[in-house]
Amino acid sequence: MDTMLLLLIIGIFFGFFVQTISGFAGALVALPFLLLVMPLAEAVCYISIFYSIASPIYFYKEWKNMDKELLKKLAITSFFGVLIGSIVLLFGEPNILKKALGIFILLFVINNLINKNNKRFGAKVQFILGLFGGFFSGVFSTGGPLYAVIIKSETATVQAFRATMFGILGIVSIMRISVLAFEGVLTRSELINSLYVLPFFILALVLGKMVYLKLNEEFLKKFILGLLFISGFMLIIKN
User: Fold this and answer.
1) How far, in Å, CA of 93 to CA of 140, rounded?
2) What main location does UniProt list (predicted)?
C-alpha cells in the first residue's frame, strides 16, 4: 500500500468517524492528512465523493429529526455559494477569507460560553451565512463550522442539530461534486481509489454511530463547541 492511499484511508476514516458523532467537522479532520500527499482540489474531490456516499444513509436515518424549513433555506443560498467557491478553487486560494472564518467561529464559541441564551439569527443573516457556507464548502470543503453556527442557533436539541447538519452537508456535497465533475476536476483515478477506501469509510460510520449512542446530550453539546473551537483555531493558523 503506497503512502497516498494509506493517508487517504486514515483521513477519511477519522474524518467520518468524527462526522458521524457530531454531525460536522469531517472535512476539517480529514484535510490535514490528505493535504500531506495531494493538492487541495484533489483532496476536496475525495471528501466530496464520501460525503455523497454518506448522504443517502444520513437522510434515511435522520430525516425525522431534521429541521426541514431551515434545510430548505440553507440549500437555496448554498447553491450560489458552492458555484462561486468551486470556481475560486480552480484559480486561487483566498487564505485571508479562511482566517476570517476562523475568527468568526472562535467569537461564536466564546459568545456561547459567556451567553447561555443564544439569540436566533434573522433571515438576512441566515442568507449571508448560508451563502458563505456554500462558498467555503466549494473552495476548502470546510463550510461545516459555518453551517454549525447557524444551525446551533436555530435548533433546540443535539438530535435536531446533528440531523440538520447531515442534511445540509449532504445537499452541499452533491452540489459540489456535480460542479467538480462538470469542471473536469473529478477524475476516474479518484473514483477507483475511493473503492479501496470504502470499507474503512463504512467502518467509520458504524463505529461513529455506536459511540454517539453512548454519549449524553450535555457532553455532545460541549463536544460540538470544542470541535468548533478547534476548527476555528486551525483555520486561522493553517495556510
Assistant:
1) 8
2) membrane
Reading the block at residue 54, the C-alpha cell is: 454518506
- The sign of the CA dihedral 103, 142, 174, 81 is positive
As a whole number of angstroms, the distance between CA 204 and CA 117 comes to 34
Residue 84's φ and ψ, nearest 5 degrees, are: -65, -45
Strands (E), the chain: none
* Per-residue pLDDT tens over the stretch 38-72: 887 788 889 888 988 888 888 888 888 898 888 88
Sign of CA dihedral 100, 106, 111, 114: negative
Please give the Cα distance from 91 to 51 (Å, whole number).
24
Give long-range contacts, CB 8 A cutoff, 24+ apart: 1-9. Answer: 3/37, 4/37, 4/38, 5/193, 5/196, 5/197, 7/33, 7/34, 7/36, 7/37, 8/33, 8/34, 8/37, 8/46, 8/193, 8/197, 9/196, 9/197, 9/200
Judge if pTM exceeds 0.85.
Answer: no
Residue count (the chain):
239
**CA–CA separation, 99 and 120 (whole Å):** 24
- pLDDT, position 195: 92
